[in-house]
Structure formats: structure tokens, C-alpha cells
Amino acid sequence: MSIEIEKKYRLTAKQRDEILLRLPQIGAKRSGEEFEENTLYAGDGLDPQHSVLRLRRVGKRAILTYKERFPTRSDIKQQREDETAVADAEAMELILDALGFTPALVYEKRRETWKLGKTEIVLDELPFGLFMEIEGDEQSIREIESKLAIKRLRAESATYPQLTMQHGKNQDGVIEARFP
Length: 180
Description:
By secondary structure, this protein is an alpha+beta fold.
């Protein structure tokens, strides 16, 4: 079992631009940009308030992930995260269906990834807004937050699935947040 530690921020367009200028100045290295389609499943054994089963498609790659959030009052979230590469996303969908899991939610995301030491900084664009996540140990997250020195940086406690539920549209029983 792997533990993911991260802090998420909601950004304005100006803050995103400032961060993109600051990242190379603090020594971060850009490691790529990609488009994702994330499908979350509902079914027995999944508590939508605390756990998700997600099939993520990135180009020709696919990743199956199980996440379970641990309760906390901190703006730095910790959660169990187990994932594995999937060779055939369509076959995985058929397997999930056969096991009784059904698509409940879909969201698209454009993600730009940066690295600073062992810490990952991602800038995400979703149909409902701009976000940044810093993933690493708590000390590294706080250090990078300080080094970026972005004014009025606001932590976002809602997950992307929760935000998709708020901002998405119901398409035949599946809540979707897609780019036009």
C-alpha cells in the first residue's frame, strides 16, 4: 500500500502564470504535459465519500487506481493510493462491468508536471477551473509553497470527483465534466 501526500490549490489565471514563471526560478524542471480522461466507478465496496476506483486514459496508456482518503483537518491530504498500468483500457472496462462496477463520473484534465527534488508540482486545467497540486512529504510541500511566494494562494479541500459532481452535467446517468 502506497500513501499519497499532497496539497491542492485553486488558482486564478494570473496565479497560474506567476507559478509558471517561478517554477524554473526555484529550480523545478518541467517533465511533461498530457491530456487525461478519468472515469470513476461505482459499485459494492466503494464509499464515494472516502474511496474511488478510477480508470485514467492518457494517450494510449491507461492506469487503474484505487484511492482511499484518510480523515484529517489539515489542508495537506493523505490517502492510500494503489495503481497499476493497464495494457487494454477497453478490456479493463469489460472486467469492471463484469465485477459489477459501473461508470459514475468522468472528468477531463490537462496536466503540466514539474519536479523539484522528489516533489512533484502539477498544474491542472479542468473544465471548471485551474488548480495546482504539490505532492511530496509535508516539509517539502511547505517549502515549495514558501519558495513560490504566490499571493493569496487558496487551498482547495474538494477532490476533483467532488468538484465534478458540483460542476458536471448528467449524461445518461454519468456525471461528466468535459472540455468543449
